[in-house]
Amino acid sequence: MHPSVTLSASQLAQAIRQGTFLPSEVVNAHIARIEAVNPALNAVVQQRFARARQEAREADERVRQGAPLGPLHGVPITVKEAFDVAGTPATCGLLSAKVHLPQQDAVAVARLRAAGAIVLGKTNTPDNCWDQETVSYLFGRTNNPWDLARSPGGSTGGEAAILAAGGSALGLGSDIAGSIRLPAAWCGIVGLRPTSGLINEVGFWPPSVGHLADLNAVGPMARRVEDVALAFALLSEQPAQPLDAPNLSGQRFAFWLDDGLIPSSGAVQGGVQAAVRALTERGLRATQAAPTHRRFAVAGWLASINADEREAIGRGFGGGELWSPLRELQNNLADQPRIASGALRYWLSSHYGSQLVTLLGVDGHAWRRELQAEFIELVGEDGFAICPVFPTTAPRHGWSVVFPLTISYQTWVNLAGLPALVVPVGRSGNGMPVGVQLVGAPGTEWMLLKAGYAIQQALMPVARIKDV
């Protein structure tokens, strides 16, 4: 394995600026790594290797000429298949979008490329990003690099898997119901879900129509907090802030160990407690308390999806043509599927679940306001909370048949539109990664990144590339 593959995105950018590696050397090493691990993972499903090598040679020339270099100059990245990359198919795993060939980059992709990043390829996602496992009709199943029999999560599972295995230094994902945070926790990487709507989503599929925009966010993923912070500054067009800040002392935060209904495992509870200790040893003040409105948050999340949003999701599955959930169920039962069974199950559950909770009188928007107000009252305008992302470490493939029982662990964050950062904190007894999420009030991404960096320094000072 080439030594550049083990470096973080920030370290790679610095090594390229210092002349330790040329961009072409780094890009070729990461392509070789993808070729070595991808047969087992099935994470990268759209290759862009020839164009990436050409861009790397052009980046070499800028280094030789002493030209100004962007903060990600020559750094190899991958992006979720749901984002447009000019000249590369963008299907979101959908048969209906198989021939879609965008002519320009999504805004988020363009911002990373403008900083010098080189896109190696695009990573697997479930059809229409609508499942918490990563299985698509077009590309099949992605496996967790820590145990191929286990799920990497979804919907940004391909991205998390290839980052954990060292095939990419930085990634781009999205999160409407835990889709960045769940894969990050299960694959042992860092993932940031910013405040809903903060980062431009133009060029992302499916479009965040109506209230879906209140639930969704796009954000960066990497193996290190500092890399996610660098990418967040670029994506949000905000000035970067130092992470190793001494002013965290005295900062208050809350923590809890489950979603108020489903107990979490000993490994997950231990991860939260380890993160709490790491911060209290830095002088932060912890309170064990939780917002009650996080319970059954999936009901509020479903109630936020009205008729217009349900139609938009259906048109997403159809690539613009409205598809009927029942018709697709008939197709799958007749062994003539057009979408993967997991995405169909998730679609049916959300489509009819949304109708049911609305009929029961659940007001998702009132729930959102009450949850957000309760959370801010608990932690303050600049505080945060530490809690689990899921009750266990990564389960085996097929676990999502019971996702309604566990989804409130993630969806309360989306319902309230809050930013959240996942940080790895160790390994369970069976060797699987354990991650925790730090959740803050709207606009507190930099506070989360600083606290996450302190946890990383204490618990995971060295990132490990998982061999496959």
UniProtKB/TrEMBL annotation:
Organism domain of life: Bacteria
Residue ranges of coiled coil: none
Domain Amidase: 25-449
Pfam families (UniProt xref): Amidase
One of the record's GO cellular component terms: endomembrane system
Signal sequence coordinates: none
Protein name: Amidase
Organism: Oscillochloris trichoides DG-6
Lineage: Bacteria, Bacillati, Chloroflexota, Chloroflexia, Chloroflexales
